[in-house]
Specification:
By secondary structure, the chain is α+β, with helices and mostly antiparallel strands. It has 4 helices and 6 strands, in the order E-E-H-H-H-H-E-E-E-E.
């Protein structure tokens, strides 16, 4: 049985995920070549001449890593059943080769479903930081979760 169900969620609750994810140069280039081939993601010499001063990961790559951290740290231990979307993504600072990313989750809202007594939704803020504890990305989104016992 999952550790976290809808009725376990409270506003202000925080989850600090165990583990981190180290970003490699090769992974940055491979992801970017396939999905976001801007020069500062795929070409070290071109990236050096940009305002970033070197190669950086695509923000979408950072989102994918954040999703992995979210699944490992929360979703795969919860009754989560998907998401209708995210409200906001903010890339605060560049992610560079060698950065080690970690994540935490804060519950912002807890809303029971009005039409489906077996579930509800949580609005949350996912904060991704690097090895220096600098915030690199913030994502505000919604996750639908099942209840252990349907509401009356």
């Amino acid at each position: 049985m999952p550790s976290y169900a809808f009725e376990d969620m409270t506003v202000g609750q925080n989850f600090d995920f165990e583990g981190n994810y180290k970003i490699t140069r090769e992974e940055i280039i491979e992801f970017a070549r396939k999905y976001d081939p801007q020069p500062f993601h795929v070409d070290e010499s071109a990236a050096a001449k940009t305002m970033y001063g070197g190669l950086i990961a695509s923000g979408w790559h950072t989102c994918a890593v954040a999703m992995r951290l979210l699944c490992d740290g929360f979703m795969n231990q919860s009754t989560g059943i998907g998401s209708p979307g995210v409200d906001e993504i903010r890339w605060i600072r560049p992610v560079r080769p060698g950065d080690e990313l970690k994540a935490s989750l804060e519950i912002l809202e807890v809303t029971p479903s009005r039409s489906k007594p077996d579930r509800g939704s949580i609005k949350h803020k996912l904060v991704v930081t690097n090895q220096l504890d600098e915030v690199v990305m913030i994502v505000t989104g919604i996750t639908m979760m099942r209840r252990r016992v349907p509401a009356d």
